[in-house]
Amino acid sequence: MSAATVRRGFVLAGLSNILGVLICSRVFTNDVMMETQPVVMGLFGLVCIVLWGLAYIAVSRNYAQVRWLIAVFVIEKLAYVAAWTSFITSQSLTAVYEQDAFAGVFYTIYGANDFVFMLFFAFVFWKSRDISN
User: Fold this and answer.
1) d(Cα 56, Cα 48) in Å, to the nearest integer?
2) What whole-number distance in Å separates Cα of residue 73 and Cα of residue 96?
3) Helix (H) or strand (E) holding 69
4) DSSP class of residue 62?
5) Tens of pLDDT along 111-128?
6) Cβ-count burial 58-93 (b if 16+ within 10 Å, e if not)
7) Most buried residue, 7, 35, 52, 61, by CB count within 10 Å?
8) What mean pLDDT do residues 10-23 have?
């Protein structure tokens, strides 16, 4: 994977977080989204997701120099995948969709999205061991 492709991956991960939250939460006003999983996706949680997105973009040009921060990104994504898995196996997506389509879409895809980017960050972490030595 070229350095340019990896940079684009970081930017895509960041934009996914930022735009996904801002659009689906209707700029932090979607009560259904925030009340469905309040510990993870409450207002504070959504703001933090946007901040994570900004962090991904911020390291897009110097990711090889912050290898262990990329490991933190892997763990962070794993935490969200676990939260999503817990949600999806214990709650009704149909009920969320009935209340709000944007919230339904968000809860349908956020775990899969985070899983894909977790794998991307893990790959970058693994490959950057050669660069950082």
Assistant:
1) 12
2) 28
3) helix 67-90
4) T
5) 999 999 999 999 999 998
6) ebbeebbebbeebbebbebbeebbebbeebeeeeee
7) 52
8) 97
The per-residue pLDDT for 129 is 78
Tell me which residue range forms the domain holding 121: 3-132
- Nearest-angstrom CA–CA distance, 3 and 124: 10
Give the C-alpha distances (Å, rounded to integers) separating 56 from 44, 69, 93, 103.
Answer: 19, 10, 29, 24
φ and ψ of 61, to 5 deg: -95, -15
Q: Mean pLDDT, to the nearest integer, of 28-40?
A: 96
Count helices and strands (H / E) in the chain.
7, 0
Q: Is the pLDDT of residue 23 over 70?
A: yes
Q: What are the tokens at 99? A: 């209340």
3-state percent breakdown (helix, strand, coil) of the chain, nearest 5 = 85, 0, 15
CB 4 within 8 A of CB 58: no
- Calculate what percentage of the chain has a pLDDT beyond 70: 97
Domain count, the chain: 1
